[in-house]
Amino acid sequence: MKDKHTERWHTYEPFHVVLGDKKVVDIIITNHARTRWADRVESEKTGYSDIAEYMWQCLKEDRIASYYRNEQDVYTIDDDLVFVAEFSVSETDTDLLGNPLHKMIVVTFLGRMSETMELRDLKTYYSWLRHSRRMTLIKNNRKRR
């Protein structure tokens, strides 16, 4: 969803918002992200346009920050809502100097840190998930023998 509410006259550059080293020109919400949004964030405004509009507002107000300093795929909104995003270069849009602009593809919403304490340290959380899944597979394998 591109920014619908921006009225710009006499300019030739597409509207973009800077996030880290990327210039975001479009936001794409995946199907998985929409279902996770409905499950973990909000149950009333669950449409693609509702989520993208909220994300645009957060981008314009500089409320989105990287979760880790070195990694570029996990982000937080207001230091609470954690989501995973990927970036791809837009084939149609460039800035005035010819530099590429990016599409932000929201892969999933992990939830709110204020509600899920495990999200405060994602590396520990993911290692715990891997361990618990591996143990479940081991138990199921024992049952089948």
Structural topology:
Elements: E1 17-19, E2 22-29, H1 31-40, H2 48-60, E3 64-66, E4 74-77, E5 81-94, E6 100-112, H3 122-144
Parallel strand pairs: 2-6
Antiparallel strand pairs: 1-2, 3-4, 4-5, 5-6
Total number of beta strands: 6
Amount of helix? 25-40%
Report the portion of residues in β strands.
25-35%
Strand order of the largest sheet: 1-2-6-5-4-3
Low-pLDDT segments, ≥5 res:
none
Largest beta sheet, briefly?
6 strands, mixed
Would you tell me the structural class of the helices and strands?
Answer: alpha+beta
**Spatial extent as radius of gyration:** 18 Å
Question: What is the overall silhouette?
Answer: elongated
- What is the average of the pLDDT values? 80
Distance between the termini: 51 Å
The succession of helices and strands, N to C, reads: EEHHEEEEH
Our count of helices gives 3
Any overview of this molecule?
Helix content is 32%, strand content 31%. The chain contains three helices and six strands, in the order ββααββββα. It has a six-stranded mixed β-sheet with strand order 1-2-6-5-4-3. The mean pLDDT is 80. This is Periplasmic protein.
Q: In a nutshell, what does this entry contain?
A:
With 145 residues, the chain is α+β, with helices and mostly antiparallel strands. The protein is built from three helices and six strands.
